[in-house]
Amino acid sequence: MTEFFAKNRLFGDVCSLFGGLLLPLGFSPFDVWLTPFISLVVLCLTWSNVTSIRAFWRGWLFGCGMYGLGVSWVVESFQYSYVSFGPAVLLTILLVMFLALFPAVLGAFLVFSGATNVYLKWVVVMPAAWVLIDFFRASFLSGFTWLQVGYSQIDTPLSGLAPIGGVYAMSWVVAVTSGYLVWLLLKPKSLFWRASILVLIPWLLAIWANSITWTTRAGPDISIALLQGNIPQDIKWQAESKVPTLHLYHAMTRAHLGNDLIIWPETAIPGFYEAFRTFLSELQHDAISSQTDLLIGVPTKKTQPVRFHNSLVVVGAEPSFYHKRHLVPFGEYLPLEPILRPIARAFGLPIPQFNPGPEDSRLLRVAGYPVGVSICYEATFGKDVIRALPEAAFLVNVSNDAWFGESIAPHQHLQMARLRAREAGRYLARGTNTGISAFISPRGDVVARAPQAVRTTLVMDITPLQGVTPYSRWIDYPVLVLMLILLVFGTTVGRVSR
User: Fold this and answer.
1) Which residues pair with 310 in a beta bridge?
2) Which sequence spans correspond to the domains of the chain?
3) Which residues contact 423 (CB under 8 A, 6 or more apart)?
4) Predicted confidence (pLDDT) per residue in 447-484, tens digit
5) To which H or E segment does residue 396 belong?
6) Distances (CA, A) of 446 to 109, 211, 418, 420
7) Cα–Cα dist 232/433, whole Å
8) Both ends of the chain: CA-CA distance in Å?
9) pTM of the predicted model over 0.90
C-alpha cells in the first residue's frame, strides 16, 4: 500500500490534500467525530516510504486542505476590518499557506528522524510530535488553536480526559489511535494485543474518568441572563448607531433586573468606558436597587501612560474591571510590529493598539461569587481560563462573533468553550453579540443556547461549584513532558530496532 503512494506521486499528493479537507468535518457545525481519525490515517499512509522533501510537500498540501476549509471564515474577519474583498482573500490564502507549514514540518521530521520500526514511528513518534507541534502553533505569535483535533472529541468518551490532561491529552489519543490503525494496515500479522496496550489504556482511562464528578456545590443557584443584542459588525461602531445601541441594551437589561447577574457581550458599549460614565452610573443605580450585578463588555483607556484595553466591568455593588490579557494578533495588536507594520499598511489593515491586561489581576466578584472571566479569543486557550481556579465558582466568556459573520467559526468557537467548561469542571455562561450565546454544563454539554443572528435573551439558573480537576492543578505540563519522553524514546529506539 505504501509503495503505491510512494510510486504514484500525484495520487499520493491528491490524497494528502483530500485528507486535509476531511479533518475540519470533525468539528462543529459538522461534528462527524470519526473524520479526524480517517484524515490522519490517510496522511500517515501518504508519508510512508517517501523522502523528507516529499513528506514536507504532502504535509503542506494536507495543511492547505485542512486550514483552507477549516479557517476559511478569516476572509470575513478581514473584510470587517475594512479590507476589500481581493486583499482579504489574498491575506487569507497567505495565512492558510503559513499554517500549512506546521504539518509540513511534521512530515519532514518523521522521515528525517530515521525511525525504522513501524510501530514506534506511527504509534509513538508521530502522535507525540503531532501534539508538540500543535503546542508550538498555540504559542507562536500569541498562538492559534483552531482545529486542534482534541476539540472534535468533546461528544465522545475521550472528553473524560479533558479534566485530566486538557485538549492535548485528547489530541494525543486521536493521533495515537490513528497511528495504531496505520500500523495495523502496514503490519497486519504482528502481535495484535501486545501492540494494542498503548492505545487501549488512554481509552479505558477516558471511559473511567467520565464517571467521576470532580466538583461539588459551593452555594445556592444563581440566575443569569445573557443579552444577545445582535448588532451587525458593519454598523456597530458608526456614530449614529451608538445611542440606539445603548437604548437597546438598557431596555433589555431593565426587562431582566432581579436576576442575580446580567451579562452583556464583548464591547457591547460602542466606545470607551470613560465617555459613558453618566450612562453607566444610571445602570449602577438600577442594578443596586434590584440587587442585580451587571457584567458589561466595554473598551477602556488609561491616560498615564496611554493604554487601551478590551475590558469587562462589573456594574453593581462591587464595581471592578477585568482587562483582556491574551490579545488577538493583527486584530488587537500587531506582532513583530517593526517588520509587519509596512506590510499591514500596504494591505490597508488598521494598526491595532490594544494592550494586554496585568497577569496578576484579581478575580471579579459577581452575584456573591468569584468568577473566572475570559474575553473572546482567550476561551480558545485552556491555560488562560484555568488560571481562575480553584477560586472561581463558575466561568463567563463574552465574545463578539459578529467578526465571523454566519460562517462556521462561531460554532467552532462554542465547541472550544465547551471544552474549557469540561476541563474546569464548572458551568460556563457564554454571552455573545450575534451568537452563539449558551450555557454550558461542567461536563461540556450545551444545556441552553440562543439562535444565531437573533436579538434575544437567554436566562438560566446555574450551580456555583468548588473543587479542582487534575487539569486545573497541572495545566498542560504533564502531557507535554510525556510527549517529549515518548518522542525521545521513539526516535532513539526506533533507529536501531525493527
Assistant:
1) 299
2) 2-213+476-494, 216-468
3) 162, 163, 166, 167, 382, 385, 386, 469, 471, 472
4) 999 999 999 999 999 999 999 999 999 999 999 999 99
5) strand 394-399
6) 39, 19, 7, 12
7) 9
8) 19
9) yes
Backbone angles phi, psi at 446, to 5 degrees: -80, 110
Evaluate whether 163 touches 423 at the Cβ level (below 8 Å): yes
Count other Cβ atoms within 10 Å, centred on residue 171.
Answer: 27
Spelled out in words, what is the top-level CATH class assigned to the domain 216-468? alpha beta
Q: Which of 44, 76, 121, 266 is catalytic?
A: 266
Active-site residue, selected from the candidate residues 44, 332, 376, 423 = 376
CA distance 447 to 414: 13
Give the DSSP per-residue string, 21-64.
Answer: HHGGGGSTTT--TTHHHHHHHHHHHHHTT--HHHHHHHHHHHHH
Asked about 324 being catalytic, the answer comes back as yes
Label the pairing between strands 222-228 and 446-449.
unpaired
Nearest to 462 by CA among 495, 483, 439: 439
How far apart are alpha carbons 144 and 413 in whole angstroms?
12
Helices (H), 138-231: 162-186, 192-209
Catalytic residue, chosen from 324, 332, 378, 423, is 324
| CA dist., res. 128 & res. 149, Å (int) | 13
User: Measured between alpha carbons, how far is 306 from 266 in angstroms, rounded to an integer?
Assistant: 22
pLDDT tens digits, 244-283: 999 999 999 999 999 999 999 999 999 999 889 899 999 9
Residue 171 CA to residue 158 CA, distance in Å, equals 9
Separation between Cα atoms, residue 104 and residue 54, nearest integer Å: 9
In Å, how far are 245, 283, 288, 456 from 251, measured between CA atoms? 10, 11, 17, 12
> Quick one: what percent of the chain has pLDDT higher than 70?
92
- Which helix (H) or strand (E) segment holds residue 314: the answer is strand 306-315
C-alpha cell at 25: 468535518
DSSP 124: I
Length of the chain: 498
- The count of other CB atoms within 10 Å of the CB of residue 142 is 18
Peptide bond into 163 cis (omega under 30): no
Is 274 in the active site?
A: no
State how far the Cα of 120 lies from the Cα of 183, in Å rounded to an integer.
9
376 is catalytic: yes
Cell of 314: 462589573
Q: How many angstroms separate the Cα of 120 from the Cα of each of 48, 111, 184, 216?
A: 13, 13, 13, 42
| Whole-number Å distance between alpha carbons of 34 and 127 | 17
Residues 6+ apart with CB under 8 A from 206: 157, 158, 159, 160, 161, 173
